[in-house]
Amino acid sequence: MLELRPNCECCDRDLPPDATAYICSFECTWCATCADEVLKGVCPNCGGELVRRPVRPAGKLANNPPPTKRVLRAEPCPPIAAE
Questions:
Q1: What whole-number distance in Å separates Cα of residue 68 and Cα of residue 80?
Q2: Burial zone of 73 (CB within 10 Å; 0-12 exposed, 13-18 middle, 19+ buried)
Q3: CA-CA distance, 62 to 73, in Å (whole number)?
Q4: Confidence (pLDDT) at 77
């Protein structure tokens, strides 16, 4: 079952189950800003494609809650490039 991790691994922004978030096939999890502007759609952990994380229906969250353990990258993400 999909973990629905609670935060962006790059900036540590909270990502509730209904938030727009992006994941790779290993479920590394990123907010939309980091996925698009910093990571350019590629997971820095595995090199895989980032795709939109599905939203778990609210009625299923009670019996299938997301984890509370936060995951952060060991190395900082690169800064957002100035335009």
A1: 27
A2: middle
A3: 29
A4: 83
4-61 pLDDT per residue, tens: 999 999 999 999 999 999 999 999 999 999 999 999 999 999 999 999 999 999 899 9
User: DSSP per residue over 7-60, as a string?
Assistant: B-TTT--B--TTS-EEE-TT--EEEHHIIIIISTTB-TTT-PBPEEPPPPPHHH
For residue 46 the two structure tokens come to 């595995």
Three-state secondary structure call for residue 61: helix
Phi, psi of 30 (to 5 degrees): -140, 145
